Amino acid sequence: MDALARAGTLTSPLRDGDMLAAIDLGSNSFHMVVASYTLGQLRIVDRLRETVRLAEGLDGKGGLSADVRQRALTCLARFGQRIREIPPHRVRALATNTVRLLASPQSFLVPAETALGHGIEVISGREEARLIYLGVAHAQRPRPGSLRLVIDIGGGSTECIIGRGFQAVERESLQVGCIATTRRFFGNGRLSRRKWSEAVIEVGAEFQQFANTYRALGWNEAIGASGTNKAIGEICAAMKLTKGAVTAEALPQVRERLLRAGHIDDIDLPGLSADRRSIIAGGIVVLEAAFAAFGLVRMAVSKAAMREGVLYDMLGRGGEHDPREASILALTQRYGIDVAQAARVETTAIRLFEQVAPAWRLDHDDLLMLAWAARLHEVGLAIAHSQYQVHGAYVIEHSDIAGFSRQEQQFLAALVRTHRRRIHKSAFDALPDRLLDAARRSAALLRIAALLHRARDADEIPRLELEADGMRLTLRLERRWLEMRPLLRADLESEPTAIAALGIQFEIAVD
């Protein structure tokens, strides 16, 4: 960690007046929040929201219709104009359920990133849940020691979280949302009691998978987040059933008023905006199922959601409380990683990084990924020694790791997968083009560091100089030190052939 702290000078901490932006590519709406970092706090200076209905464009094969795709790109281009003066490392754009369901996400993400002018990360449902809870917790400060249940009904998924303070304790994500549920049960537009009952039972079965666990843990208050819950709360208030909360008494009355319409086009709920009329039925079904599964009596409604959570998460990433650090530590403990060996490899990898970062244009984010990959490079040993780099890569890519996007996990997995043995051509296939150069170069640094410590020797390397000239690397070592390690010398002699698969020419010089 000392070496990592020294290398932290490669980036600049947040300064007073810095601008940050969070973009949420939801299944129903795209949101952007722009904030100023002022006196150690975030001050919202702008909000943009557009109803894109990305989930409406999904077909049964994981494709996205041309008209919805264009609608999304047009929206992102407008967002991009607003934040074109904000540095890329102060912007986070996150895609959620609909993009997770695409058969070929890159076919959408590449033009989407071009339109926005910034990279877009895809996050898992549980990571989405963590960020939602973080946003709600900062908007409505929790009471010390109390537990709260947060439910967020999106267009394509619903997230349920129990948290304490600012930390999520339990996180779940279900494939039910207002758009998806409306299309599934009321696709022809007709509203009937029979179909409604069927919908509530089927959606309720999804909640039952974890409802008992949640109820056993308990909570002191329930809060709904995002547009669907806010819309239902506004309907309850307009019908004079509550002052904005949703209750077990009010919800059936809202449902009865909706069912009397008979058809989605004829829904006339007071307080309901026109752009939500076509999807509100599915949202009410999901919330009614949640009330039944959790035995809820009352649910307050929060104005905050994932986008605010992303902003506060960026504060942590830019300071001493990066949530990813805790996740890496948890993985090292869970899989019994040899922390002494991992630290040796990490320290050497960082030493190498510091020497080539300017020439290779590697930044602080690349440094973090290299350091974390070094800590986790032996995680696969918990499964088997043979091909442990393959096992380790699988664990990293397919685990729910709090704080990490899918691309970040794929980046880490690629480094772990290629840190030893032959480098397969497909090792970097999952990564977007914008990350390929950094990934391949970081992989080379991790390979060299792991190789230098293959003997698990605690002795310091007396001379360690690495020079980058284009795609050529030259490693300089002390001759006497190397001659005392014939196995290492033999490994180094064969490494140029292996590392060439990364598109890098590797040379060793001794003197």
UniProtKB/TrEMBL annotation:
Domain Ppx/GppA phosphatase C-terminal, first and last residues per copy:
324-495
Q: Which domain of life is it from?
A: Bacteria
Under catalytic activity, the entry for this protein gives:
[phosphate](n) + H2O = [phosphate](n-1) + phosphate + H(+)
For this protein, the Enzyme Commission number is: 3.6.1.11
The main enzyme category here is hydrolase
Q: Name one Pfam family in it.
A: Ppx-GppA_III
UniProt GO MF annotations: exopolyphosphatase activity
Membrane topology recorded in Swiss-Prot or TrEMBL? Peripheral membrane protein
* Family matches, as Gene3D superfamilies: 3.30.420.40, Exopolyphosphatase. Domain 2, Hypothetical protein af1432
Q: Where in the cell is it found?
A: Cell membrane
What are its cofactors?
Mg(2+)
Record keywords = Cell membrane, Hydrolase, Membrane
- Partners and quaternary state? Homodimer.
> In which family does this protein belong, per the annotation?
Belongs to the GppA/Ppx family.
> What is the protein's given name?
Exopolyphosphatase
Instruction: Name the species this protein comes from.
Output: Luteimonas composti
Q: What is the lineage of its organism?
A: Bacteria, Pseudomonadati, Pseudomonadota, Gammaproteobacteria, Lysobacterales
Q: Which gene encodes it?
A: ppx
